[in-house]
């Protein structure tokens, strides 16, 4: 009986991780070294709402909560990182919400800022959703991967070895 339970839990963990990788990206955490750069680029102001698309184990959510943002919402569909993240942010609720939800189903018009660390195919798919749903001026910050054909607001890559972080403003020409 215990063995069956173990197998079921294992399959749920592996299955949801594989599904998340197929949908957008596997779980790879952002480098702690880059947190401050990300905070500078998201530039959260009082009363704003930030969405993190694929929040992994929720490590960035408490960082965003250090700002004056009104609402910090992370989306995750892989069970194992979600459990770690849920535990991490449990005392920061309700200002920080960590949703076990597919970000492709979220309404992006509710976000002032969107942060993501995904893959090039996911960015290609999201570009259409950004163009359809984001309000003009929504700040979109993407760690490592750019949005093809969108004009850049800023790019952080001070050295050859640094991971690039791209910032865009929706509603700009093409964006
Ligand atoms: C590269 S990791 C980034 C994790 C986190 N944002 C960070 O920077 O540390 C991408 C995350 O997106 C999640 N993911 C992939 N597709 C998703 C989807 N459709 N909805 C919600 N989360 C998704 C994966 O499970 C994974 O944890």
TrEMBL record:
Gene Ontology biological process terms, A to Z: methylation
Keywords: Membrane, Methyltransferase, S-adenosyl-L-methionine, Transferase, Transmembrane, Transmembrane helix
Residues spanning the membrane: 71-89
InterPro entries the record matches: FAM173A/B (IPR026170), SAM-dependent_MTases_sf (IPR029063)
Gene Ontology molecular functions: protein-lysine N-methyltransferase activity
Superkingdom of origin: Bacteria
CDD domains: AdoMet_MTases (cd02440)
Identification of the protein by name: SAM-dependent methyltransferase
Organism lineage: Bacteria, Candidatus Kerfeldiibacteriota
């Amino acid at each position: 009986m215990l063995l069956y339970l173990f197998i079921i839990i294992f399959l749920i963990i592996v299955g949801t991780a594989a599904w998340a990788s197929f949908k957008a990206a596997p779980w790879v955490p952002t480098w702690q070294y880059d947190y401050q750069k990300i905070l500078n680029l998201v530039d959260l102001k009082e009363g704003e709402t930030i969405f993190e698309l694929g929040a992994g184990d929720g490590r960035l959510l408490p960082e965003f909560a250090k700002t004056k943002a009104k609402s910090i919402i992370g989306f995750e569909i892989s069970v194992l990182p979600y459990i770690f993240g849920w535990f991490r942010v449990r005392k920061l609720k309700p200002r920080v919400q960590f949703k076990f939800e597919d970000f492709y189903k979220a309404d992006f018009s509710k976000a002032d800022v969107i942060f993501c660390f995904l893959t090039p195919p996911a960015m290609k798919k999201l570009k259409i959703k950004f163009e359809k749903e984001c309000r003009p001026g929504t700040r979109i910050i993407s760690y490592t991967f750019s949005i093809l054909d969108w004009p850049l607001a800023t790019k952080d890559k001070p050295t050859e070895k640094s991971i690039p972080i791209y910032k865009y403003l929706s509603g700009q020409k093409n964006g």
